[in-house]
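Input record (one chain):
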Amino acid sequence: MRYATREIRLASALVEAADTLVEGFEAMRYLQRLSDHCVELLNARAAGVMLIDGGRSVSLAASSRHERMALDLLEAQHGGGPCLESYGSGRPVPPVSIRVAHAAARWPDFTERALRHDIVTTFAVPLRRREHLLGALNVFGPTLAGDAAPAADPAPELQVAQALADAAALGLQNRRAYTQYRTLSGQLQEALSSRVRIEQAKGMLAERWGVRADHAFVALRQYARRRRLALDQVASTVIEGAADDAELRREIDEDSAGPA
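The corresponding structure, as predicted from the sequence alone:
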């Protein structure tokens, strides 16, 4: 049974775009792979991704094919271009003839540079997850003789590019949430571990000195404050047997706290 090769490649690309919850994830490499898939599936000359925050470009990534050219074309869009237009509207920018756009003074810096690179057409789709916009995916058409016009029916190309962009936006948002949760989990675990060490040190001192646990805690706290040390750091030295016991005990005496 023969399957449509393009559909199989697209399915594989979408799965890869959604797979971001892995160790060693690199955002730029991920976005380059997305651009590579776009070039392959759409028979484009090059493609690139512009991540945007607050209306400003914050990161660029380009296909491995003609990477320098694609980055140059993305950088030329700071004053306007298909990426910023797609991001601003939240909708695709259908295929545009570079010569026609240049003659109409649409995106003058971008179209001037695109002409120098012999780019004939371009289009862009937003990277979006529901209403949340992350940037745009830009596709650069192949070099053709004469004044080539966009395809009569650009819908299939736009749909493929938008599917890839949507999958990437989902993958990036999942990765961001995953990273935030891991960071929070680590912080909570460290806070719990710190509390356990403090309680352990407090109990060790209380037993050693024959005082109440709250008095031992006062000694730990005062000692840490006077020396501008973290309480957890002082507790660790107590547990490891490296603390100056006499200095710690003096904190209770100066605080007028006696034995139980």
